[in-house]
Amino acid sequence: MKIVRKHNLVVLALACGLAAGLLCAPNVQAQSEESEPAPALGEFEAEPLPPPEQPFLVPDVPQSVVDQTQIKERWVTLKVGLVTLADFTAFNQDSASIGQVGRQQDQWEARAARLMFRGTIGTDYKVGYLVAGEYKGFESEPEQLWQLTDVSLTFPIGGPANKLTVGKTKETFDYEMVGDAANLPQQERVLTPFFVSRNIGLKMNHVFGDDQRMTLSYGIFNDWWVTDNSAANNGTDLSARFTGLVWDQPDGKRFLHLGVSGRYAGADNHTLRYKGRPESNVADDYVDTGNLTADHAWHLGLEALWNEGPFSVLAEYNRAWVSSAASGNPQFYGYYITGSWILTGETRPYDRTVGYARRVMPAGRWGAPELVARFSNVNLDDGSVQGGKFNKTYLGINWWATRRWKLGFGWGHTWLDRFGKTGVTDSFQTRIQWIY
Questions:
Q1: Which domains does the chain have, with CATH numbers?
Q2: Could you read off the pLDDT of 344-368 as tens digits, one per residue?
Q3: pTM for the full predicted model
Q4: For the chain, what is the HEC assignment?
């Protein structure tokens, strides 16, 4: 018993040391937050999954190792998590595309290597905590190899259905961002011009009803204290998201989710900029408005997820109204629709406590293959602002080899309209992903 307690204290000390060492790190866009199974109806914490009926073809972490990396004391719990993603992306461009954005380089990328510590502190009143650091996070600067992605405390308010989160966390806008990005059918986000990944502030999350059919989250964010700006010159963001299950079946495999979100984006130093890549983390920015003299912008997000057993359709629409008299108060928009078919019959489980679907949990020895088709559009052209616009089609296959391993391959075809010409890019992306 003394040995076990000593081990637990070492793990806890490591978590505290990581938090202290990363507190002054700058902001970074990252992949996903911790990825857990969906809680059962009426619950707010996920129960451990039972062992699979038969071993997966691909070896994974034994349960004994999982147990050794957790603390379950009366006053403190701790889970150690790790997210690793590696990609290889190849490009084929026509001459117009090269003239627009330059030649895109075929390359490997350590897409993410993220270490997480999460759990609770307290006995009767439990405060949640999350600390995570990432190597080469989403859109990180080359000279910043290790960065803080999350450091937050979560306080239940009158029960687990209402929670206040304080610290560096996700804003409450856009399904692609709020959800577990590594567990979406598509490999990358496309609506990145319209949100930021993490910000510093306060946010509330509410879950309504015994059947947990609706959620409401909202927050206020300003990271001025880790930047060179004053609070007045650093834009304050306000965001809110409301979701509901329009209908669902008791088996959890058939449901229709709808959501609406809004965001007030304050301008940093009276400047806003919208830019984005064509669903690739290594491509250059294909659309870019440049710096716009502006006061603020309003963003609207609409989302829908229909799930029928192994079939699902996920769609989103974002629109931005920019308060910029110098640029004619432009409006920008983007949208996508993604279809998915899990060939072995598994479903993507819906988490009623957060208003999005979690990762596929394969049931058979051979894992769960998933076919994915997607169409997306981003338009940053309006009036005098000509940031470009593109359409993209994507066909891919994911193999959820175990509950933690996923391999994926996808082909994307992008048409970019910019600088008076239309350029075409084909991209081929291979991903290997392990989430513990």
A1: 2-435 (2.40.160.10)
A2: 999 999 999 999 999 999 999 999 9
A3: 0.88
A4: CHHHHHHHHHHHHHHHHHHHHHCCCCCCCCCCCCCCCCCCCCCCCCCCCCCCCCCCCCCCCCHHHHHHCEEECCCEEEEEEEEEEEEEEEEEECHHHHHHHCCCCCEEEEEEEEEEEEEEECCCCCEEEEEEEEECCCCCCCCCCEEEEEEEEEEECCCCCEEEEEEEEECCCCHHHHCCHHHCCCCCCCCHHHCCCEEEEEEEEEEECCCCCEEEEEEEECCHHHCCCCCCCCCCEEEEEEEEEEEECCCCCEEEEEEEEEEEEECECCEECCEECCCCCCCCCCEECCCEECCEEEEEEEEEEEEECCEEEEEEEEEEEEECHHHCCCEEEEEEEEEEEECCCCCCCEECCCCEECCCCCCCCCCEEEEEEEEEEEEEEECCEEEEEEEEEEEEEEEECCCCEEEEEEEEEEEEEECCEEEEEEEEEEEEEEEC
